[in-house]
Target: Malate dehydrogenase (NAD)
Amino acid sequence: MKVTVVGAGAVGASCAEYIAIKNFASEVVILDIKEDYAEGKAMDLMQTATLNGFDTKIVGSTNDYDKTANSDIAVITSGIPRKPGMTREELIGINAGIVKDVATKIVEQSPNVTLIVVSNPMDTMTYLAHQVIDLPKHKIIGMGGALDSARFKYRLSEALDCPASDVQGMVIGGHSDKGMVPLTSLATRNSVRVTEFLSENRLQQVAEDTKVGGATLTKMLGTSAWYAPGAAVSSLVQSIACDQKKMFPCSTLLDGEYGLNDLCIGVPVVLGKNGIEKIVELNLTEAELNKLKESAEGVKKTNQLLEL
Ligand SMILES: NC(=O)C1=CN([C@@H]2O[C@H](COP(=O)(O)OP(=O)(O)OC[C@H]3O[C@@H](n4cnc5c(N)ncnc54)[C@H](O)[C@@H]3O)[C@@H](O)[C@H]2O)C=CC1
Ligand SMILES: O=C([O-])CC(=O)C(=O)O
Model:
């Protein structure tokens, strides 16, 4: 199993590290445009192999796509991150050109690849990938909801004063400060709905904190987060690589599901060896469905900024 990660920055390196530590891939190629940068990250990570006990071979590449040939899975993290005070949508001007170029080059070398798009604004970059490369729709996946759901569970565990592993929950909708839809009515602590334990106000606070999860960290760190994003990507990669058929909310091209068309937005999907093996349609409350539709309008507005 060969995995390529484009972008050796904060998220790309974190993602490569988690993939290696989980020890399911034979090879991870990290590629960056900065001279020697990916090679340096690869060497540094390889020097953790005996410490962390993995056998994955990590290779660096300065913009040489030949090294990525015949990848089974590729992850696009190349592009700029936001600074405090910015929205993800403001990154479109620079990142659209990068994602278009990188996606095209990956597919030239790996025509059967499954592509995971991470660069922001992620839902729009995933839609862009569908427009510029010739891959079946189930092989282009946007990562956002897996991360947002992990943050939701973290916030719920704080409110419940329990370990996050006790909590189940999901965030659907666009990966944006306003567009996320944390499904508070469905969240549980060991199968008991969290609405049994938390007041409406406290749950509202959890939802709001979840939606601005990325912005909160960007303000604290001066750039956006990387540990949870890298871990979230590695979980998607593992589900595909190991045919685990796990369910994650991911950005996928919708064709009538949830009454939505011609956009990529986060909804639950099953990830296995064929990429997106199923789009799961939940029975949402009217309020949740309305929030998802509002979120979709926001994503479509950003998509209109693309020069296709
Ligand atoms: N979807 C999600 O949930 C998340 C998305 N992100 C996004 O991921 C992206 C990367 O974030 P960071 O890793 O923090 O940024 P970073 O600045 O640390 O790394 C980005 C890397 O991309 C490289 N790069 C730029 N253009 C390239 C090209 N044409 N080919 C190859 N490499 C190129 C840069 O040299 C740099 O090393 C940002 O757009 C950020 O907003 C970050 C966190 C979560
Ligand atoms: O907040 C950002 O810009 C990066 C990101 O998407 C996240 O961490 O959720």
Summary: The chain has a mean pLDDT of 98.
